[in-house]
Amino acid sequence: MSARGEFSSRIGFILAAAGSAVGLGNIWGFPTQVASNGGAAFVLVYIILAFVLAYPVLMAELVIGRATRSNMVDALGEITGSRIGRFAGVWGFITVSLILAFYALVAGVMISFCLAPIADLLGFDGATGWLMADLSSEQAISRNILFCGLFMALTAIIVSGGVKDGIERWSVRLMPALFVIILLLIFYVLSLDGAMEGLKHYVLPDFSKILNPDLLISAMGQAFFSMSLGVGTMLVYGSYISKNEKLSTLGASVAFVDIGVAVLAGLLIIPAMYVALHNGVQIFAENGDYIAGPGLIFAVLPAFFDTMGAIGNFVALAFFALMIIAAVTSSISMLEVPVAYVVESKGMGRKRSVWLIAIVIYIMSCVIALNFNALFELVIAATTVYSQPLLGLVLCIFAGWVWKRDKILDELKNGDPQLEQGLFWKIWPWYIRFVCPVVIVVMFYRSVAS
């Protein structure tokens, strides 16, 4: 094992990388995308595009990471042999740090919403109201800052343990727990009145929409961004993979797990929304679309839990525990990106680096919390709408056009000596060079235009 750390097992990497990809967006974004875009027809298109488009970019990050055994800044500097590569790396870790800053705020609210049912069961009505306050309200500022700090501390504790004893150790515990909780909630929700109507909207395909340009572009976006691509998390995780592992298989396994969680989230969320509708809760926005994003998690579902009586507290507790797990498995990968850079390029010890960077990001979160209405959506747009797709485009250009093809092949043949004769090598280099950049440009233009 190298001094900088490696994943000790194949399953450890797969669960850690899948945990990075499985975040809050999978659970609150994917299901409503499916329900609004032809049900199972969208799922089919999403799965196809996940492997045709997102998987090749995922492989690019993994190959760059394992070949260079470096953080994002040094890795991109090495394969390009220029300051442009290093600049892209710095841009990446700044972007991922800003994403973590607003992500930690939302995850902190997940913790408070998870504690609220306990406070309610104990009869602490005042505490329950404070814990459940609207994310953007004046009343919520102190709560947001407190629980954001708690979430960042939890993330820092895990990352400070290193690759094997921190990231891998917790990923192999948290990801199975996530699957168990989501399956239990699915079985329970499907037993309630109204659930079958939601299930029909989710699983019955409307093939008339399958060639709709909006559906195709939405599926492209969901497939690409749900795998945590473009900001260096997969690149850094790839740098911790053993040279004996077959990268193409590992990447496919991560994609399968990520897709599986997204599909399971749909089996939970859409039936739950229709049970909520059956119980008198509004699930549609004024324009007729399903309520998605934070509105779904912080308004629709809590109102649904309230209609369930005493059992609603236990269901809410399990649901928000699920959301916390999804948030933590993503946040540890995001924090690792700047930490890896500081440890390797600046020579600072891991624990000191982790806590220093966590504090800086927490301060950024506090600034956003204190100026919520002005900064929250602005930071989200700057990072996920603009910066992340452009970084993905840069990675495709580096892997497809700048980095020498024979070096890529040599790296991929580690753990897979026969790769050159296989289908992967016949297709992947052309996809990453021509197809993926065009698709990312199209997605970026659509996002900016809309």
N- to C-terminal distance: 48 Å
% residues in beta strands: under 5%
Count of DSSP-assigned helices: 19
Helix content: over 70%
> Which oligomeric state applies?
single chain
Overall pLDDT level: 90
What does this structure look like?
This protein is mainly alpha-helical. The protein has one domain: Amino acid/polyamine transporter I, CATH 1.20.1740. The chain is built from 19 helices and no strands. It has helices spanning 10-21, 24-28, 30-36, 40-68, 72-80, 83-121, 125-131, 141-160, 162-189, 195-203, 213-225, 233-238, 247-278, 293-306, 311-346, 350-370, 372-402, 405-413, 423-449. It starts with 9 loop residues before the first helix and ends with a helix. It comes from Paraglaciecola hydrolytica. It is found in: Membrane. Its main location: membrane. One of its GO terms (cellular component) is membrane. It is a multi-pass membrane protein.
Layout: helices, strands, pairs:
Blueprint: H1 10-21, H2 24-28, H3 30-36, H4 40-68, H5 72-80, H6 83-121, H7 125-131, H8 141-160, H9 162-189, H10 195-203, H11 213-225, H12 233-238, H13 247-278, H14 293-306, H15 311-346, H16 350-370, H17 372-402, H18 405-413, H19 423-449
Helix pairs in contact: 1-9, 1-13, 1-15, 3-13, 4-5, 4-11, 4-13, 4-17, 4-19, 5-6, 6-7, 6-8, 6-15, 6-16, 6-17, 8-9, 8-15, 8-16, 9-13, 9-15, 10-13, 11-19, 13-14, 14-15, 15-16, 16-17, 17-19
Keywords:
mainly alpha, 19 helices, transport
Concise summary:
This protein is an all-alpha fold.
